[in-house]
């Protein structure tokens, strides 16, 4: 069971903006990592774009499951995981991250923010904390 990506986005008008993201592409071949990360960013934006405000969904994309939560205020989160990762845990993580993000980052920054301008450092920690480690043999 593996988490690959955790993203915070803003579903604004006219488009979806990536505000902050964390990736774990360590299991991919070195030469594939940047294209896998691009795919995850693109997929996250596309899923948020196609989701209604106030909705949760799990979407299968290739061998991944993408869990999306779009709040009524337009703040959205996406977790990309393998098929075995528990859906309930993904949505618990998204709730926690979006609540914390909205407390730490002003709503005024969301429509124009970018990963470079938004100051929120917790995503890498959450991605690491929620990884399911296989027991050592």
TrEMBL record:
<keyword id="KW-0564">Palmitate</keyword>
<keyword id="KW-0653">Protein transport</keyword>
<keyword id="KW-0636">Prenylation</keyword>
<dbReference type="GO" id="GO:0006888">
    <property type="term" value="P:endoplasmic reticulum to Golgi vesicle-mediated transport"/>
</dbReference>
<dbReference type="GO" id="GO:0015031">
    <property type="term" value="P:protein transport"/>
</dbReference>
<dbReference type="GO" id="GO:0005484">
    <property type="term" value="F:SNAP receptor activity"/>
</dbReference>
<dbReference type="Pfam" id="PF13774">
    <property type="entry name" value="Longin"/>
</dbReference>
<dbReference type="InterPro" id="IPR010908">
    <property type="entry name" value="Longin_dom"/>
</dbReference>
<keyword id="KW-0472">Membrane</keyword>
<comment type="similarity">
    <text>Belongs to the synaptobrevin family.</text>
</comment>
<keyword id="KW-0813">Transport</keyword>
<protein>
    <submittedName>
        <fullName>YKT6 protein</fullName>
    </submittedName>
</protein>
<dbReference type="GO" id="GO:0005794">
    <property type="term" value="C:Golgi apparatus"/>
</dbReference>
<dbReference type="InterPro" id="IPR011012">
    <property type="entry name" value="Longin-like_dom_sf"/>
</dbReference>
<keyword id="KW-0488">Methylation</keyword>
<keyword id="KW-0449">Lipoprotein</keyword>
<feature type="domain" description="Longin">
    <location>
        <begin position="8"/>
        <end position="127"/>
    </location>
</feature>
